[in-house]
Structure formats: C-alpha cells, structure tokens
Amino acid sequence: MKRPCATLTVAAALTWSACASAPRPTALDRLHPCTGDEGPTDAYCGTYTVSENRETKQGRKIDLRIIVLPALSNEPSPDPVFFLAGGPGQGAAELARGVKEFFRTIQTDRDIVLVDQRGTGKSHPLDCKFEDDTLKSLNEPEGATLGLDRLKKCLSEYDADPRLYTTTIAMDDLDEVRAHLGYDAINVYGGSYGSRAGLVYLRQHGDRVRAIVLDGVAPTNMRLPLFFARDAQRALDRLLAACASDAGCNAKYPNLNDRLRALFARLEKDPPHVRLTHPRTGAAEEITVEAGFLATILHAALYSPLISSLLPELVTRAETNDFQGLLAMVMLNDGVADNMAIGMQMSVLCAEDYPRIEPGEVEKQSAGTLFAKHLLSQRMRVCEFWPKGKVDASFYEPVTSDRPALLLSGEVDPVTPPSWGAETAAHLSKSTHVVVSSTGHGVINTGCGLRMMRAFIKAGSAEGLDTRCATAVTRPPFFVTPAGPDPAAGSSKATP
C-alpha cells in the first residue's frame, strides 16, 4: 500500500510520473487533509456516522470524528495502530497533535488512527464544563455539592441517551470505523481506560487484532473507583519511603510520613481559613482548606514521579498554612480537564462499575488510608441519579485471547498498579507483562516504554523482546531547594 506523494523537490521531479500513478489507500480516500483547526495539517480528517442506538438503528445519529496520522514511509505496513484514549472521557482525536510528536517512531512504518469515542471530543460529546472559576469548587463539601448540581443540570440538557455510551457499544462503533477505512487487521494501543476499551475490542473483534498494547491496565472487573484510595496510598507510601531513603530528602524533610498524617488530621479537625491567589485568574480569594483539597492534589500529583518530586517541599509549606504551591499543581491538569467529557465518564462508570460495588466495600477498601472519604464520595453519589446502560454479566469475565499482547505497568502507578496487569495477563496466552521501575501512570511516557512498544508492534510478537530497560528507570530526584534537586545528587536517568 503506497502513500500519496509529498511535495516534490526539483531533484525528485523525474520520479513524478511514477509517483503520481501510485494508488491512494482506502483510508485516506475516505478522509480529507486536515485544516489547521481540525488537527495536524499533515494528517487526514473526517467523520463516520453511526446510530446512537445500535440495536434498533432508529433515531439519533452520531458523527464520530476521525484523524489518521499517515505513515511516513512510502511503503508502510498495512496494519495501523489504533490509539484508544483514557479517562474514561478523553477524546482520542483531540490528542492528535501530542500523539503525533510522541509516537513519531511508531508512525514511521504505520498509520496511527485516532477516533473520538462516542460521547467524547467532537463525537456528540457528553461534556459538563464548570464555568465557576473560583477556588471554592476545589473544596469539600462545597465543591462536591457544586459538582453534583452541575452534573444534574448537564444531564437535563443533553440531547442524548446517556445509557448508550458504554464501552461495548463504543467498540462496535470502532470496528465499523476500521472497516470503513479499509483496514483488515489492526494493532491497538490502549492507555488507562483505553486499556479496558482495548480488552473489550479484543473480546468482540479479536479476529481483527494483530497485536495489542495495554498500558496502565484497567480490566473490566476493576470496579472503578473502589480501589482508588488503596492504590493511591500504595503509591504515596512508596514516595515517602523513597524520600526517607534519600539522604538529601530525608535531611530536608525528616519524618515526612508522620507529618503528613498529622497535617491531614489537622485539616479534618480544624481546617484553616486562608487567602490564596488563583493561579490562572490572579484573583485573591478567602477559602477554608479541607482535607479533601490536599487528598485530591496528592492523588493527581502521584500520577507523575516528576511532579510528585515537589510534594515533600509543598507539604512542608502546607504545614504553615501556605497552600499556594499545592494549588498551583491543580492547574497542571487544566489541559486534561479540557479534553474530558465528564458525562460520558459517568455513563461508563455508573453502568459498568458502580452496580458491582456492594455496601460497605468502600469503607473496607479505603480503611487506613489518608485518602479515605476523599476520593470516592462524589463519584458514588453521581451514580445514584445517573441513567445506567445495560451491561451483560459476561462483560466482567476475564478477556481471553491468543493475540500477541504487551502489558505495561508503572511500579508506582497510583490508579492502575501492576497487580491489575498481572491479573489480566494471566488470561492472555501470548502476553508479556512488564513492570517499569519508578514509573507512574502511563509507561508510554518513558523512553523505555516507547522503545518496547515500537519493537513489539514491529515484530507482532513479544518473543525475544528486550525489556532490560524496565529495571533501569529511576525516580526523578526530589526538590530540596527552591531551584530544584540537590546538585550533588546528580541527574536522574529517568528514561533509559
């Protein structure tokens, strides 16, 4: 399958006649070159229409947004990589510019296909934006109440049936897109919730899968967000242990574990009323800082070892009621929030996970953690009123397959720790599960992960895959001065 020719230089003009006659692949025939506001200008854009109700084929239609990043080679492999985004709620096509830069080595040989899953991005999104730009939304219980009211309002305004935005339905959409674009076999990359989507696609359309990469594995039986507090505490414990074993960090921040617990206890018993400056608007506001404020920020920071290297210093400042640094960390996730369809997220979680969480399980799984009561309550309360789609009991059975699979887990991932990858790999007969040391959520964020993925997809097999770099990744050094890490500590080789 040949590519359409790029703009020719004078030196290449003599080859034009042969190049001009090369057939364009079906995928690009059914799309058009992206304009600047659609996606990367060297990519191809388009839509594919599906029925919202796939069972009856009646009523509302959904235009699924598609972006294809064409392979850079003139003789690419025929099997593209379909990129499945996380969340749930992220639009894959919305990430096209970042994926283009990050997956450049993958794109050398293969098209990369990004489809905004129904309810996300520009595929009839179930958005629910929060227009209140004040800091009170970050606190509890006020923030939780505001969030619930906002979601109820959004739900009443949707021109959609939220029950029809589950993973099984969306993966049938995706296979229609595959067929529409003319691809016979595909490779799948799924990160975070995208790994669940990938597993569901593998179960429903496994005959179309050449190979699959699952990064930060979230299987169908995970019951999100039941284990959030437990898994976040595991990652936090490893962070605190790393600081205690690091001479510079331990000297600057001694007894950090005990001090952090004391800080939580104080915020729960006697939350301080402080004046903070909004990092984005510059407006100064008076707010009461609850323990949930700290829990939410800690949890988000633990996704990235680089960002969490700031936590010892920022926690120390918080002990004196200086929460400005922690507040600034909230804004690091603004870009993620802008591409997160919360309504679609609720449609997935409330249909697929919430019904299987028994009374008392939240308290049991959260017991003894600093995050208990602070990471689950709002999500659980939303599902009390959110419409729930049909999910067959077989959805929760382990996905079995003989397709080649590479499962990647970050050792200190606070939301999809390695235990989920190990459990899933046990049912995939041609799978390899790699745990990458000192890595958080998203192994693909490391050079090691990218190289393993490229080699795996190129070979279509994990046999003989070089995974030695997985044990060589190190945690970034802690910030112990206003300028950063102790210079005497040397630089970290975080992406060998």
Explained architecture:
The chain is α/β, with parallel strands linked by helices. The protein has a domain at 10-132 and 142-224 and 395-471: 3-Layer(aba) Sandwich (Rossmann fold), CATH 3.40.50. The chain is 36% helix and 14% strand. The strands form three sheets. Strands 1-2-3-5-4-6-7-10-11 form a nine-stranded mixed sheet, sandwiched between helices.
Task: Give a topology summary.
Elements: H1 16-20, H2 26-29, E1 32-33, E2 44-51, E3 61-69, E4 81-84, H3 96-102, H4 104-107, E5 112-115, H5 142-157, H6 167-181, E6 186-191, H7 193-205, E7 209-215, H8 228-245, H9 247-252, H10 256-269, E8 273-277, E9 284-288, H11 291-301, H12 305-308, H13 311-318, H14 324-330, H15 334-338, H16 342-352, H17 361-366, H18 377-382, E10 405-410, H19 418-425, E11 431-436, H20 447-459, E12 479-481, E13 484-485
Parallel strand pairs: 4-5, 4-6, 6-7, 7-10, 10-11
Antiparallel strand pairs: 1-2, 2-3, 3-5, 8-9, 12-13
Helix pairs in contact: 6-7, 10-11, 10-13, 11-14
Write out the strand line-up for the largest beta sheet, numbering strands in chain order: 1-2-3-5-4-6-7-10-11
> C-alpha Rg, in Å?
24 Å
Biggest sheet features: 9 strands, mixed
The CATH homologous superfamily of the domain at 10-132 and 142-224 and 395-471 is termed Alpha/Beta hydrolase fold, catalytic domain
- Outline the low-pLDDT stretches: 1-24, 490-495
CATH fold-level name of the domain at 10-132 and 142-224 and 395-471: Rossmann fold
**H/I helix tally:** 20
**Sheet/helix structural class:** alpha/beta
In round numbers, the mean pLDDT is 89
Q: What is the CA–CA distance across the termini?
A: 35 Å
What percent of residues adopt helix (DSSP H or I)? 25-40%
Q: Could you name the CATH class of the domain at 10-132 and 142-224 and 395-471?
A: Alpha Beta
Number of strands: 13
The outline comes out as globular
